[in-house]
Write a structure and sequence with these properties.
- The chain is mainly alpha-helical.
- The chain has 2 domains: 103 residues, no CATH class; 328 residues, no CATH class.
- It has 19 helices and no strands.
- It is globular.
């Protein structure tokens, strides 16, 4: 009996879903708008089922072109949060596709488990219902777990390696696309304060650049190829152009840890000397102008605080004082700031710019400690038996990310999806390589024993 090829079947299902969504949009526009994110996620999963590597291109395109920002600018009314919903569902769609094709990972997803515990406590114990609706809490749960959902999936090493490498190009694509569309007037690569923003905003582009530096550094130490060193420099240039201080400090800490603690297996002394001596002049030529541009904000006489942390943090500190142990429930952190405060209107943001404060409001000090302990356990324990380069870079990146979390939104923004997708992919690839190396090691040990006996 003749059967439909799997690839054709996936295409037919995607076309059927698109047709159903179109019919629903004609008959019930509001309902169609509500189900659109889930429908998009389903069609993406079906479309990339037969070609998993295309999912890497999807991830880079969605975040590099700032699809969330563009959709939010086009949407109005109740659809204003459509962009955020779509980009948060993309990792769920990719994870679902990988799980359907390759199965589930055997590693424990500690961060996802921690957020699930916090959400359950929020429903049963905490006064979230008095602060906002359960629907708001569900949206916060989806947004909080989206960065970690890919860790549930299993995949071949080439897929994980493609994710690790693709992450490097997100800020570079954002920068290049912004310059290309600049003449059309659709997007300016600079904000009102002449900070470079690409297709995003300066803080978001800086967040993507931080992860790109992590990823490119890992590939350079693994392969020794010059192109990854150049891509690290390009990501650093983008980061400097955003004039974002906290991300730059985190990256400097990361690079310092890697350079100083790398042993001769990871970065031989000769290569360290070559990097310092041979890289000083090219680095000064390529990064010097951007560094001078960044220094104008870092060391200038302008006293304007563009982040508004001094305005927003007192709101969160007062809320934590009232319920220090268990907080108010997942999603409450973005609801405690008074939107009518003239200072909040001036800075046009109610974000905490501090994940420790935000999560302490959501889940209390205990819940915040649980979430960050889970992230540390996930990365630190996951790198115990992997190659030295992977272990050093992933742990150094974790330390830098923990520092960065004290000054930015590193777990709830779209930048978190890119960062923890890279962590998940790098951990999965390192575990696979470690398992593949065990048989070869056992064979060498067995051969050595035979030679000793002989």
């Amino acid at each position: 009996m003749r059967t439909v090829p799997p690839s054709l079947l996936a295409l037919l299902l995607a076309l059927l879903a698109a047709a159903a969504l179109l019919a629903l949009a004609i008959l019930e526009p509001q309902l169609a708008l509500a189900v659109m994110p889930a429908a998009v996620a389903l069609m993406v999963a079906l479309l990339f089922y037969e070609a998993p590597l295309l999912a890497v291109g999807l991830l880079v395109a969605v975040y590099g072109l700032a699809v969330d920002v563009q959709l939010d600018l086009m949407a109005t009314g109740g659809a204003a949060a459509l962009g955020s919903a779509v980009v948060k569902l993309v990792p769920f769609a990719i994870a679902a596709m990988l799980c359907m094709r390759y199965g589930f990972s055997s590693a424990i997803n500690w961060p996802f488990l921690a957020f699930t515990i916090v959400a359950m406590v929020s429903i049963v114990v905490l006064p979230m219902g008095h602060v906002s609706t359960n629907a708001e809490m569900v949206r916060s749960f989806i947004g909080s777990t989206a960065p970690f959902v890919l860790a549930f999936a299993a995949a071949p090493r080439r897929v994980w390696s493609s994710f690790c490498k693709g992450i490097v190009f997100i800020p570079l694509l954002s920068a290049a696309a912004a310059f290309l569309v600049w003449p059309t007037g659709l997007q300016s690569p600079f904000d009102a304060n002449w900070r470079f923003q690409g297709m995003h905003s300066p803080p978001f582009l800086a967040g993507f650049a931080v992860t790109a530096v992590f990823a490119a550094t890992l590939e350079y130490l693994r392969t020794g190829r010059t192109r990854w060193l150049l891509l690290t420099g390009a990501a650093l240039a983008v980061l400097l152009a955003t004039q974002a201080r906290a991300p730059l400090i985190a990256v400097m800490l990361f690079l310092g840890i890697v350079f100083l603690l790398a042993d001769r297996r990871v970065l031989p002394l000769k290569r360290k000397v070559d990097l310092v001596m041979g890289g000083m002049l090219p680095g000064a030529i390529l990064l010097g102008p951007v560094a001078i541009f960044a220094a104008d904000r870092f060391f200038g006489d302008d006293d304007v605080n563009l982040s508004g942390r001094d305005v927003i943090w007192p709101y969160f500190i007062d809320a934590i004082d009232q319920r220090p142990l268990f907080g108010y429930g997942l999603g409450a952190g973005k609801l405690i700031v008074d939107p009518e405060d003239p200072r909040i209107r001036l800075i046009r943001s109610n974000a905490a710019h501090n994940e420790y404060l935000r999560l302490s409001v959501d889940a209390g000090i205990l819940g915040c400690a649980l979430i960050f302990s889970a992230i540390v356990a996930w990365v630190w324990l996951g790198t115990r038996r992997v190659a030295a380069a992977d272990r050093l870079v992933l742990r150094a990146a974790l330390v830098a990310a923990l520092l960065h979390s004290g000054f930015d939104n590193t777990l709830i923004a779209s930048t978190a999806v890119a960062q923890f997708t890279w962590f998940a992919a790098a951990l999965a690839r390192a575990r696979l390589e470690q398992r593949e190396s065990i048989p070869a090691g056992l064979m060498r040990e067995a051969l050595a024993r035979r030679l000793r006996v002989a």
